[in-house]
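User: quick one, fold this
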Amino acid sequence: MSMRIESGGTFDGLKMVVRSDEDISAYSTVTWDLLGVSEPSVEDSSTAENKNPCVGITGPGGIASGRQGEILLYGVIENRAWSWSAPQIPLYLSAVDGQMGEAPAGPWHQQVATTITTTKILFDPMSVWEI
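Assistant:
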């Protein structure tokens, strides 16, 4: 596992190289098992059982099962396919695995980012769930 900080592109900030035991799509939010499992996995916020906080987001290439890839722990990420409604909007972990949304998905929620533009976000996940 390695960490580094990069700037000047569309996936910049504090990153970690990790190995995944499942396919994780591009621009997916990821979490770690509370038992300390080192592989990231996608998670949603739809039920009380799914309450491991989001810790990162994959970049444009995602991570294939059994392979290593980068996740952004903190920083700026741009996806031209996003269409957030406006700058300075908080984004929350969605009820859909690996996704974010502009509104909390339910009574349990975790803010994971803030929009900069309609296609760019500052990824800065809160370390706790809010009720």
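User: anything notable?
Assistant: The chain has one domain: 2-123.
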